Fold:
Amino acid sequence: MKMRYVLLAIFTLALIGGASYGQVVVRGGGGWGWGGGGGQVTVKIDRIMVEIKTLTAEQTAQLKALATAMDKDFKELEKEHQDVMNGMFQKGGRGGIDKWGEEMASQQKETESLTEEYGIKINAILTAEQRTSWEKSQMSPALATELAKLDLTAEQKATIEKLTLETAQTIAGAKTLAAGQAAKAALARKIITEVLTPAQAAKLAGLQL
Structure:
């Protein structure tokens, strides 16, 4: 049972790491401290415009405008926090060090809030079908890489495909980053505990029972 939990943790990290974090937008803000910069979020919108083939001209124009606004907001947030950090260390002494953790936590909270705000705006532009298609495409490479190690039956493949689609639909409607991560963790848990055999699950981490 303990080995199952270890395998579940490894597979969950691989799945979450290879896909977007809830929302259509993946991560943002504060490149110097947490999770990647606003530029990466803008690139994510660029990828959406390339990979979703059913976008209308109006949707494309809306996403371009949103990418510009998003880039501006994340850069402003990053500069704001960077100025605070610079001020701490210019003063010197233990106070700056003690405040470092507090400032990092504040940055992460504001970054997540801004990311979720823009995620909602992106979701409002895309249709439910487009959002689901996008989220599924982001999970598929990570799943394929891990599951290629296994000799899955046709029934197992069909079950995993069904679960992946259901998870993509859940993530497409998620309102927070945490909800998206929870959905991916639930998918990993179902695959490990309900679809794979113990021997197959062990192969995911290169272990043998």
